[in-house]
Write a structure and sequence with these properties.
The relative contact order is 0.19. Helix 1 runs parallel beside helix 3. This protein is 52% helix and 14% strand. It has 166 residues and is α+β, with helices and mostly antiparallel strands. The protein is globular, with a radius of gyration of 18 Å. The active site is at 123, 141. Its EC number is 3.4.23.36. It is found in: Cell membrane.
Length: 166
């Protein structure tokens, strides 16, 4: 009996997210000094602004005494392992599952690399409008967010067979 092809080849997308994330962070670290200084891209909407985050999304637990670094390292590693296992059990043609999982894995590992080598995540994309400011983020965060939204949307709105109607 021949095993069915699984979705592990989708990890090429994870690798792409990781490479783009790390290259963009390298660029941000070299081009956007000093940290905190805005570099307008689309005035009134988008700046490149170098920032660092020792916590998670929205600086959650950023004020911890340093233990949060290892907590988020272990969390990212565990989530990545679980999602790679999910990819292994997913049929290769099931792109609605494989695509978001691969994006999340790439984003998780991109930020994991930062935490391991610098104890903080490098962020630089700052979206704002008038007095409203979204927290500064990076390419890895985009992979995680887009992947999670896609996973939820595809799960909620996937056609379910019922009496032959989709």
């Amino acid at each position: 009996m021949t095993p069915k092809p699984n979705a592990l080849p989708w990890l090429w997308l994870s690798a792409t997210v990781i490479v783009l994330d790390q290259l963009s962070k390298w660029w941000a670290l070299s081009a956007l000094q000093p940290a905190g200084a805005p570099h307008p891209v689309i005035p009134g909407f988008l700046n490149w602004t170098l920032a660092f985050n020792t916590g998670a999304a929205f600086s959650f637990l950023a004020d911890g005494a340093g233990w949060q670094r290892w907590f988020f390292v272990l969390l990212a590693a565990a989530i990545s392992i679980v999602l790679v296992g999910w990819l292994r059990r997913t049929p290769r043609r099931d792109w609605r599952t494989a695509l978001p999982l691969a994006l999340i894995v790439g984003g998780a590992i991109g930020n994991l690399i930062d935490r391991l080598h610098a104890a903080k995540v490098t962020d630089f994309i700052h979206v704002y409008f008038r007095q409203w400011n979204y927290p500064v983020f990076n390419i890895a965060d985009c992979g995680i967010t887009v992947g999670a939204v896609m996973l939820i949307a595809f799960g909620l709105f996937a056609g379910k067979p019922g009496n032959g109607v989709r």
